[in-house]
Amino acid sequence: MAAEGGHPAPEAAAHLAQGVAASARTFDTVVHERTRLAILSSLSAAQAMSFREMKSLLGVTDGNLSVHARKLEDAGYIAVRKGFRGRQPRTTFALTRAGRDALEAYLRHMEALISAIGRLGAGPPGVRDAVAEGDLVPYPVATGALAGS
Q: What confidence tens digit (pLDDT) does each residue in 83-116 have?
């Protein structure tokens, strides 16, 4: 039941806030880290990327990219192929089906969390206002755009 101003009644708001907090604690921590999320997002738009391309795109160091790529590989979210082009070593990353599924689940989770925060009338003003005014444009996962790419 809504209280005055369109916000939930205090009891409902408290229940919703508990759900929001619990939801935030259940994020896939492998995906949630900024650099790993950027790697997965980049690979969702490209069929494959070389180590050099990914490093340049993300602006990270060799070591940083290696550590995060290994974590994603260990989770089964990316495939790493090592080889040579001529005499030059070449590492290529590709998103796996499990990685695409994890990214889509993460984005759906974020959308639900943003929506719940909007219903509470809480959160950063930009997000709250965008949700309230219907200006928040969901990432393509809402329409399944990632599923076919």
A: 998 999 999 999 999 999 999 999 988 888 888 7
User: What tokens does 136 get?
Assistant: 């928040």
| C-alpha separations of 92 from 39, 99, 109, 127, 148 in Å | 12, 15, 29, 36, 21
Residue 116 makes CB contacts below 8 A (sequence gap 6+) with 16, 19, 20, 23
pTM of the shown model:
0.69
Provide the strand spans (E) within 1-149.
Answer: 49-50, 78-85, 88-95
Q: Which amino acid is at 77?
A: Y
* 79 is a domain residue: yes
* Residue 148, in any domain of the structure: no
Report yes or no on 2 lying in a domain. Answer: no
CATH number, domain of 41, equals 1.10.10.10
